[in-house]
Amino acid sequence: MAEDTFTGKVVIVTGGGSGIGAATAHRFAAGGATVVIIGRTQAKLDKVMSGAPTGSTLIARVGDVSDEEEITGLVDAVAQEHGRLDTLVNNAATCEPLGTVSDIDATGWRRVMSTDVDGVFFASRAALPHLRAVGGSIVNVGSASGLGGDWGLAAYNAAKGAVTNLTNAMALDHGAEGVRVNAVHPSMISTDMTAGFLQNDAIVAAALNRVPMQRFGEPAEAASVITFLASPAASYVNGAHIRVDGGLGASNGNPHIA
Ligand SMILES: NC(=O)c1ccc[n+]([C@@H]2O[C@H](COP(=O)([O-])OP(=O)(O)OC[C@H]3O[C@@H](n4cnc5c(N)ncnc54)[C@H](OP(=O)(O)O)[C@@H]3O)[C@@H](O)[C@H]2O)c1
Protein backbone atom coordinates (compact mmCIF):
# COMPACT_ATOMS: atom_id res chain seq x y z
CA MET A 1 0.00 0.00 0.00
CA ALA A 2 1.39 3.38 -0.99
CA GLU A 3 1.92 5.99 1.72
CA ASP A 4 -0.63 8.28 0.06
CA THR A 5 -3.39 5.72 -0.69
CA PHE A 6 -5.71 7.33 1.85
CA THR A 7 -4.39 10.90 1.88
CA GLY A 8 -7.28 13.31 2.46
CA LYS A 9 -9.60 10.49 3.55
CA VAL A 10 -11.34 10.23 6.92
CA VAL A 11 -11.85 6.80 8.47
CA ILE A 12 -13.67 5.58 11.59
CA VAL A 13 -12.66 2.26 13.14
CA THR A 14 -14.94 1.03 15.92
CA GLY A 15 -13.30 -1.16 18.51
CA GLY A 16 -10.01 0.45 17.54
CA GLY A 17 -8.49 0.10 21.02
CA SER A 18 -6.96 -3.34 20.45
CA GLY A 19 -6.41 -6.28 18.15
CA ILE A 20 -7.66 -6.12 14.57
CA GLY A 21 -9.15 -2.64 15.04
CA ALA A 22 -5.86 -1.21 16.31
CA ALA A 23 -3.87 -2.79 13.47
CA THR A 24 -6.43 -1.50 10.97
CA ALA A 25 -6.26 2.02 12.37
CA HIS A 26 -2.46 2.01 12.15
CA ARG A 27 -2.55 0.76 8.55
CA PHE A 28 -5.04 3.41 7.43
CA ALA A 29 -2.97 6.05 9.25
CA ALA A 30 0.21 4.82 7.54
CA GLY A 31 -1.62 5.27 4.24
CA GLY A 32 -2.27 8.94 4.98
CA ALA A 33 -5.84 8.84 6.36
CA THR A 34 -7.17 10.80 9.29
CA VAL A 35 -8.30 7.93 11.50
CA VAL A 36 -10.72 8.08 14.43
CA ILE A 37 -10.75 5.06 16.73
CA ILE A 38 -13.76 4.47 18.97
CA GLY A 39 -13.87 2.18 22.00
CA ARG A 40 -15.13 2.18 25.56
CA THR A 41 -11.76 2.20 27.35
CA GLN A 42 -9.60 5.34 27.24
CA ALA A 43 -6.45 3.50 28.37
CA LYS A 44 -6.67 1.05 25.46
CA LEU A 45 -7.22 3.87 22.97
CA ASP A 46 -4.24 5.75 24.45
CA LYS A 47 -2.01 2.73 23.91
CA VAL A 48 -3.00 2.53 20.24
CA MET A 49 -2.39 6.26 19.86
CA SER A 50 1.10 5.92 21.34
CA GLY A 51 1.99 3.30 18.71
CA ALA A 52 0.71 5.34 15.76
CA PRO A 53 3.00 5.65 12.75
CA THR A 54 5.21 8.75 12.90
CA GLY A 55 3.55 11.80 11.39
CA SER A 56 0.15 10.13 11.12
CA THR A 57 -3.22 11.50 12.27
CA LEU A 58 -4.91 9.20 14.75
CA ILE A 59 -7.67 10.48 17.04
CA ALA A 60 -9.35 8.63 19.90
CA ARG A 61 -12.98 8.98 20.98
CA VAL A 62 -14.51 7.08 23.88
CA GLY A 63 -17.85 5.62 22.88
CA ASP A 64 -20.08 2.57 22.98
CA VAL A 65 -21.43 1.30 19.65
CA SER A 66 -24.45 -0.23 21.37
CA ASP A 67 -25.58 3.21 22.61
CA GLU A 68 -27.62 4.57 19.68
CA GLU A 69 -27.47 8.22 20.69
CA GLU A 70 -23.78 8.16 21.57
CA ILE A 71 -22.50 6.41 18.43
CA THR A 72 -24.76 8.45 16.15
CA GLY A 73 -23.47 11.67 17.71
CA LEU A 74 -19.86 10.53 17.45
CA VAL A 75 -20.10 9.57 13.77
CA ASP A 76 -21.78 12.87 12.91
CA ALA A 77 -19.21 14.83 14.93
CA VAL A 78 -16.28 13.15 13.14
CA ALA A 79 -17.78 13.98 9.72
CA GLN A 80 -18.43 17.57 10.77
CA GLU A 81 -15.04 18.15 12.41
CA HIS A 82 -13.06 16.68 9.51
CA GLY A 83 -15.39 17.76 6.69
CA ARG A 84 -16.12 14.28 5.39
CA LEU A 85 -16.26 10.56 6.15
CA ASP A 86 -14.89 8.08 3.61
CA THR A 87 -14.82 4.75 5.41
CA LEU A 88 -16.52 3.15 8.38
CA VAL A 89 -14.99 -0.07 9.71
CA ASN A 90 -17.53 -1.84 11.90
CA ASN A 91 -15.08 -3.85 13.99
CA ALA A 92 -16.25 -3.59 17.63
CA ALA A 93 -17.69 -6.85 18.93
CA THR A 94 -17.81 -9.26 21.82
CA CYS A 95 -18.11 -13.05 21.75
CA GLU A 96 -19.13 -13.34 25.42
CA PRO A 97 -21.01 -14.94 26.97
CA LEU A 98 -19.96 -18.21 25.38
CA GLY A 99 -22.42 -21.09 25.62
CA THR A 100 -25.32 -22.89 24.03
CA VAL A 101 -28.88 -21.56 23.83
CA SER A 102 -29.54 -23.51 27.04
CA ASP A 103 -26.62 -21.84 28.84
CA ILE A 104 -27.15 -18.20 27.91
CA ASP A 105 -29.55 -15.89 29.73
CA ALA A 106 -31.40 -12.99 28.10
CA THR A 107 -28.95 -10.42 29.45
CA GLY A 108 -25.96 -12.20 27.93
CA TRP A 109 -27.79 -12.70 24.63
CA ARG A 110 -28.65 -8.98 24.52
CA ARG A 111 -25.05 -8.00 25.34
CA VAL A 112 -23.76 -9.83 22.26
CA MET A 113 -26.60 -8.68 20.00
CA SER A 114 -26.45 -5.06 21.12
CA THR A 115 -22.71 -4.77 20.45
CA ASP A 116 -22.26 -7.00 17.41
CA VAL A 117 -25.51 -6.32 15.53
CA ASP A 118 -27.14 -3.16 16.90
CA GLY A 119 -23.71 -1.49 16.89
CA VAL A 120 -23.20 -2.19 13.19
CA PHE A 121 -26.71 -0.95 12.42
CA PHE A 122 -26.41 2.27 14.46
CA ALA A 123 -22.94 3.21 13.17
CA SER A 124 -23.80 2.36 9.54
CA ARG A 125 -27.04 4.31 9.62
CA ALA A 126 -25.24 7.33 11.03
CA ALA A 127 -22.40 7.05 8.51
CA LEU A 128 -24.45 6.53 5.34
CA PRO A 129 -25.38 10.17 4.61
CA HIS A 130 -21.71 11.15 4.93
CA LEU A 131 -20.52 8.17 2.85
CA ARG A 132 -23.05 8.95 0.10
CA ALA A 133 -21.67 12.47 -0.14
CA VAL A 134 -18.18 11.22 -1.07
CA GLY A 135 -18.76 7.75 -2.54
CA GLY A 136 -17.34 6.04 0.54
CA SER A 137 -17.50 2.51 1.85
CA ILE A 138 -18.22 0.32 4.85
CA VAL A 139 -16.14 -2.67 5.84
CA ASN A 140 -17.79 -5.00 8.33
CA VAL A 141 -15.63 -7.29 10.40
CA GLY A 142 -17.62 -10.49 10.44
CA SER A 143 -16.19 -13.85 11.38
CA ALA A 144 -15.81 -17.45 10.29
CA SER A 145 -18.40 -17.78 13.07
CA GLY A 146 -20.83 -15.85 10.86
CA LEU A 147 -20.38 -18.24 7.94
CA GLY A 148 -20.89 -21.50 9.85
CA GLY A 149 -21.61 -22.72 13.36
CA ASP A 150 -19.31 -23.32 16.30
CA TRP A 151 -19.93 -25.52 19.29
CA GLY A 152 -20.91 -23.41 22.33
CA LEU A 153 -20.96 -19.99 20.66
CA ALA A 154 -24.68 -19.62 19.95
CA ALA A 155 -25.05 -15.89 20.55
CA TYR A 156 -21.86 -14.98 18.68
CA ASN A 157 -22.83 -17.27 15.77
CA ALA A 158 -26.25 -15.61 15.56
CA ALA A 159 -24.77 -12.13 15.76
CA LYS A 160 -22.03 -12.66 13.18
CA GLY A 161 -24.49 -14.46 10.89
CA ALA A 162 -26.58 -11.29 11.04
CA VAL A 163 -23.52 -9.21 10.13
CA THR A 164 -22.91 -11.45 7.10
CA ASN A 165 -26.39 -10.94 5.69
CA LEU A 166 -26.62 -7.28 6.75
CA THR A 167 -23.51 -6.80 4.61
CA ASN A 168 -25.37 -8.34 1.67
CA ALA A 169 -28.46 -6.20 2.29
CA MET A 170 -26.47 -2.97 2.54
CA ALA A 171 -24.42 -3.82 -0.57
CA LEU A 172 -27.68 -4.17 -2.51
CA ASP A 173 -29.40 -1.13 -1.02
CA HIS A 174 -26.52 1.32 -1.16
CA GLY A 175 -24.46 0.22 -4.17
CA ALA A 176 -26.49 2.46 -6.48
CA GLU A 177 -25.83 5.35 -4.11
CA GLY A 178 -22.09 4.89 -4.68
CA VAL A 179 -21.48 3.31 -1.27
CA ARG A 180 -19.72 -0.07 -1.30
CA VAL A 181 -20.29 -2.48 1.61
CA ASN A 182 -18.02 -5.48 2.11
CA ALA A 183 -16.96 -7.85 4.88
CA VAL A 184 -13.89 -9.68 6.08
CA HIS A 185 -14.32 -12.90 8.00
CA PRO A 186 -11.33 -13.70 10.20
CA SER A 187 -10.73 -16.86 12.17
CA MET A 188 -8.29 -17.43 15.02
CA ILE A 189 -6.34 -14.20 14.95
CA SER A 190 -4.15 -13.61 18.03
CA THR A 191 -5.94 -10.84 19.95
CA ASP A 192 -7.48 -10.18 23.38
CA MET A 193 -10.65 -11.93 22.16
CA THR A 194 -8.84 -15.22 21.51
CA ALA A 195 -6.20 -14.97 24.26
CA GLY A 196 -8.14 -17.36 26.50
CA PHE A 197 -8.45 -20.04 23.79
CA LEU A 198 -4.83 -19.66 22.74
CA GLN A 199 -3.63 -20.46 26.27
CA ASN A 200 -5.38 -23.83 26.15
CA ASP A 201 -3.00 -26.37 24.59
CA ALA A 202 -5.79 -28.80 23.66
CA ILE A 203 -7.77 -26.10 21.85
CA VAL A 204 -4.63 -24.82 20.10
CA ALA A 205 -3.70 -28.30 18.89
CA ALA A 206 -7.23 -29.06 17.69
CA ALA A 207 -7.51 -25.68 15.96
CA LEU A 208 -4.13 -25.92 14.22
CA ASN A 209 -5.06 -29.38 12.97
CA ARG A 210 -7.95 -27.77 11.08
CA VAL A 211 -6.10 -24.75 9.66
CA PRO A 212 -4.24 -25.60 6.43
CA MET A 213 -1.60 -22.93 7.10
CA GLN A 214 -1.07 -24.46 10.58
CA ARG A 215 -0.72 -21.18 12.42
CA PHE A 216 -2.91 -18.43 13.82
CA GLY A 217 -3.24 -15.11 12.05
CA GLU A 218 -1.88 -11.75 13.14
CA PRO A 219 -4.09 -8.64 13.45
CA ALA A 220 -2.09 -6.97 10.66
CA GLU A 221 -3.10 -9.80 8.28
CA ALA A 222 -6.77 -8.91 8.77
CA ALA A 223 -6.01 -5.18 8.65
CA SER A 224 -4.40 -5.43 5.21
CA VAL A 225 -7.55 -7.01 3.75
CA ILE A 226 -9.80 -4.42 5.44
CA THR A 227 -7.75 -1.53 4.03
CA PHE A 228 -7.71 -3.17 0.58
CA LEU A 229 -11.54 -3.30 0.58
CA ALA A 230 -11.68 0.40 1.48
CA SER A 231 -9.06 1.40 -1.10
CA PRO A 232 -9.41 2.54 -4.72
CA ALA A 233 -7.99 -0.88 -5.71
CA ALA A 234 -11.37 -2.36 -4.68
CA SER A 235 -13.47 0.26 -6.49
CA TYR A 236 -15.72 -2.39 -8.15
CA VAL A 237 -15.89 -4.70 -5.12
CA ASN A 238 -19.28 -4.59 -3.40
CA GLY A 239 -20.99 -7.26 -1.31
CA ALA A 240 -17.79 -9.29 -1.12
CA HIS A 241 -16.97 -11.61 1.76
CA ILE A 242 -13.28 -12.32 2.19
CA ARG A 243 -12.19 -15.00 4.61
CA VAL A 244 -8.97 -14.30 6.51
CA ASP A 245 -8.63 -17.76 8.00
CA GLY A 246 -5.51 -19.50 6.71
CA GLY A 247 -7.73 -21.75 4.59
CA LEU A 248 -10.02 -23.05 7.36
CA GLY A 249 -13.12 -22.42 5.25
CA ALA A 250 -11.76 -24.48 2.35
CA SER A 251 -12.53 -27.66 4.31
CA ASN A 252 -15.79 -29.57 4.07
CA GLY A 253 -15.32 -30.56 7.71
CA ASN A 254 -14.03 -34.09 7.13
CA PRO A 255 -10.92 -35.17 9.07
CA HIS A 256 -7.64 -36.04 7.35
CA ILE A 257 -8.33 -39.35 5.56
CA ALA A 258 -5.30 -39.70 3.28
N1 LIG B 1 -9.55 -12.60 16.88
C1 LIG B 1 -10.19 -13.46 16.12
O1 LIG B 1 -9.76 -14.63 15.95
C2 LIG B 1 -11.44 -13.07 15.43
C3 LIG B 1 -12.08 -14.04 14.64
C4 LIG B 1 -13.22 -13.70 13.96
C5 LIG B 1 -13.73 -12.42 14.06
N2 LIG B 1 -13.12 -11.50 14.85
C6 LIG B 1 -13.71 -10.18 14.92
O2 LIG B 1 -12.71 -9.20 14.81
C7 LIG B 1 -13.17 -8.00 15.44
C8 LIG B 1 -12.10 -7.46 16.37
O3 LIG B 1 -11.90 -8.39 17.41
P1 LIG B 1 -10.44 -8.67 18.02
O4 LIG B 1 -10.15 -10.09 17.81
O5 LIG B 1 -9.49 -7.64 17.56
O6 LIG B 1 -10.75 -8.54 19.59
P2 LIG B 1 -10.50 -7.39 20.65
O7 LIG B 1 -9.04 -7.09 20.73
O8 LIG B 1 -11.20 -7.84 21.87
O9 LIG B 1 -11.21 -6.12 20.00
C9 LIG B 1 -12.54 -5.79 20.18
C10 LIG B 1 -12.59 -4.30 20.46
O10 LIG B 1 -13.96 -3.88 20.48
C11 LIG B 1 -14.12 -2.95 21.53
N3 LIG B 1 -15.51 -2.99 21.94
C12 LIG B 1 -16.17 -4.01 22.50
N4 LIG B 1 -17.43 -3.67 22.76
C13 LIG B 1 -17.57 -2.38 22.35
C14 LIG B 1 -18.63 -1.47 22.35
N5 LIG B 1 -19.84 -1.79 22.86
N6 LIG B 1 -18.43 -0.24 21.83
C15 LIG B 1 -17.22 0.12 21.34
N7 LIG B 1 -16.18 -0.71 21.30
C16 LIG B 1 -16.35 -1.95 21.82
C17 LIG B 1 -13.15 -3.41 22.61
O11 LIG B 1 -12.71 -2.35 23.44
P3 LIG B 1 -13.50 -1.86 24.76
O12 LIG B 1 -13.87 -3.10 25.51
O13 LIG B 1 -12.50 -0.99 25.44
O14 LIG B 1 -14.68 -1.10 24.25
C18 LIG B 1 -11.98 -3.95 21.80
O15 LIG B 1 -10.98 -2.95 21.62
C19 LIG B 1 -14.49 -8.36 16.13
O16 LIG B 1 -15.56 -7.99 15.30
C20 LIG B 1 -14.41 -9.87 16.22
O17 LIG B 1 -15.68 -10.47 16.31
C21 LIG B 1 -11.99 -11.80 15.54
Automatic annotation (TrEMBL):
Pfam families reported in the protein's UniProt record: adh_short_C2
SUPFAM superfamilies: NAD(P)-binding Rossmann-fold domains
Keywords assigned: Oxidoreductase
GO molecular function: oxidoreductase activity
CDD domains, alphabetized: SDR_c (cd05233)
Domain Ketoreductase residue range list: 9-187
Signal peptide segment: none
EC number, UniProt record: 1.-.-.-
PANTHER family linked to this entry: 3-OXOACYL-[ACYL-CARRIER-PROTEIN] REDUCTASE, SHORT-CHAIN DEHYDROGENASES/REDUCTASES FAMILY MEMBER
Family named by the database record: Belongs to the short-chain dehydrogenases/reductases (SDR) family.
Name under which the protein is recorded: SDR family oxidoreductase
Source species of the chain: Streptomyces hyaluromycini
High-level lineage: Bacteria, Bacillati, Actinomycetota, Actinomycetes, Kitasatosporales
